[in-house]
Write a structure and sequence with these properties.
single chain, mainly alpha, globular
């Protein structure tokens, strides 16, 4: 941890993440990365390790990440603060929407807003997935003079990804088996 923010800063950050996460956990990951990694709170490698662990644990990715980051920085109080902050906006918004959506669900403006939010959310999810893919499988050089095709890919990770993806799609293996196998592979070989 380069910069350890205050609990109030964490609450505000995760409230912001919870408020603007439209489209699922990977959108939350993108917003968290922007706030936490780019501000030097934790390193990109630590952050994406947290993402991997959070995706492997039961529950929504966004709340798992919020809890993990809070716990990593401040222990149980940090986990509680970040978890509450992450969930609070959704809770309030859902309560308000539930009250009014049925009444206005056929409204043209409501339909228009929802039709714009969907592709934006998809784009943010694609960015998060690409970031995770690049961090896990590609060694991007700091400059073009350092570029070497032989070291561009994390070979062990790329082979593991290919094998597990093949097994998943070819044999229709349950994702839990793939996650557990990947975790074991990572602990042994990486």
């Amino acid at each position: 941890m380069e910069n350890c923010p205050s609990l109030l800063w964490l609450f505000g950050t995760f409230f912001y993440v919870g408020l603007f996460t439209i489209g699922g956990g990977l959108v939350a990951v993108t917003l968290m990365e922007e706030a936490i990694v780019q501000n030097g709170i934790i390193s990109a490698e630590t952050f994406y390790n947290m993402v991997a662990i959070s995706e492997s644990t039961p529950g929504p990715l966004g709340i798992n990440m919020a809890t993990y980051v809070g716990y990593n920085l401040y222990g149980i109080p940090g986990a509680l603060i970040t978890s509450i902050a992450e969930v609070l906006p959704s809770l309030v918004i859902i309560m308000v929407i539930a009250k009014f959506l049925q009444k206005y669900s056929e409204n043209k403006s409501v339909k228009s807003v929802l039709s714009v939010i969907r592709p934006i959310s998809t784009g943010v999810i694609i960015v998060a997935a690409a970031n995770i893919f690049l961090l896990a499988l590609v060694n991007l050089p700091s400059s073009w003079s350092d570029f070497d095709i032989k070291t561009l890919f994390e070979l062990k990770s790329l082979i593991a990804y290919t094998v597990f993806a093949f097994i998943f799609f070819r044999f229709k293996v349950h994702p839990i088996f793939i996650m557990i196998s990947g975790a074991v592979f990572g602990m042994i070989f990486l």
